[in-house]
C-alpha cells in the first residue's frame, strides 16, 4: 500500500477477515493457494507476497520512478533483491516469532534468543546503511519500503539501540514521508495496541 501511495496508483483495497476465514474460501484459494495476505489481483494476473508485489508494481507502473525504485542495473538490482531477501529471511522471521509467541500466550516479553535475533538484524541493516543513504542505494528503493514496515513493527518488540546510528537516522527519515504516515502508521498503531496488551 505504501508503494501504491508513492506511485499514486488507483486501486481497490479489499479487507480480508482472517478471523472469519475469508482467506480460506474456495474463491480465494483458487487465486491464492497460499491463502496469505497481502495478495494482488491485476486483471487475470495474481501475485502473492508484499516483496514480489512491490517489485511488480514498480516495474509495471513505476513510470519515471521505476528506475530508482527497482533499478535495471544488474548490480544495483541484485543489491535491492538481497535487501528484500534479508527482510524475508532475517527480519520478518525474527519479528514474527515474537508476535506469534505473544499471541499464543507463550511469552510476556521477548526471550534472550529472540532479542538477539532482532538485534542482529538491526546490526546488519545498520552496516548496510553505512555504505549507502538508503538500504540498497543512495535513493529510495522498494527495499526501503519493505524494510520500513518490518523494522517499524520490530522496534515495538525490541527497541533499536541508539548505537545503531545509521539505522536510527534512516528510520527517522522514512517516518517523515507522507506515504509512510498515511499507509503504514494506521496499521502500526493497531499492532502497537496488540503488543502493549501482551508485553509485561
From TrEMBL:
Residues annotated as domain GST N-terminal: 1-65
Stretch forming the signal peptide: none
One of the record's GO molecular function terms: glutathione transferase activity
Pfam family, one: GST_N
Domain GST C-terminal: 73-194
InterPro entries (UniProt xref): Glutathione-S-Trfase_C-like, Glutathione-S-Trfase_C_sf, Glutathione_S-Trfase, Glutathione_S-Trfase_N, GST_C, Thioredoxin-like_sf
GO biological process, one term: glutathione metabolic process
Annotated family: Belongs to the GST superfamily.
Matches recorded under PANTHER family: GLUTATHIONE S TRANSFERASE D10, ISOFORM A-RELATED, GST-CONTAINING FLYWCH ZINC-FINGER PROTEIN
The protein's name in its UniProt record: Uncharacterized protein
Organism: Spodoptera exigua (Beet armyworm)
Amino acid at each position: 500500500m505504501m508503494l501504491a501511495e508513492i506511485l499514486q496508483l488507483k486501486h481497490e483495497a479489499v479487507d480480508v477477515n482472517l478471523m472469519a476465514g475469508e482467506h480460506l474460501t474456495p474463491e480465494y484459494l483458487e487465486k491464492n493457494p497460499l491463502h496469505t495476505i497481502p495478495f494482488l489481483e491485476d486483471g487475470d494476473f495474481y501475485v502473492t507476497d508484499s516483496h514480489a508485489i512491490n517489485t511488480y508494481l514498480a516495474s509495471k507502473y513505476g513510470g519515471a520512478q521505476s528506475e530508482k525504485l527497482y533499478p535495471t542495473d544488474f548490480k544495483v538490482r541484485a543489491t535491492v533483491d538481497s535487501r528484500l531477501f534479508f527482510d524475508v529471511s532475517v527480519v520478518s522471521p525474527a519479528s514474527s516469532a515474537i508476535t506469534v509467541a505473544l499471541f499464543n500466550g507463550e511469552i510476556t516479553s521477548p526471550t534472550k534468543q529472540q532479542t538477539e535475533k532482532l538485534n542482529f538484524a538491526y546490526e546488519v541493516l545498520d552496516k548496510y546503511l553505512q555504505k549507502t543513504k538508503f538500504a540498497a542505494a543512495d535513493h529510495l528503493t522498494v527495499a526501503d519500503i519493505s524494510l520500513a514496515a518490518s523494522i517499524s513493527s520490530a522496534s515495538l518488540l525490541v527497541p533499536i539501540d541508539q548505537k545503531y546510528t545509521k539505522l536510527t537516522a534512516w528510520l527517522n527519515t522514512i517516518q517523515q514521508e507522507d506515504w509512510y504516515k498515511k499507509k503504514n502508521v494506521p496499521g502500526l498503531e493497531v499492532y502497537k495496541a496488540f503488543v502493549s496488551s501482551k508485553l509485561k
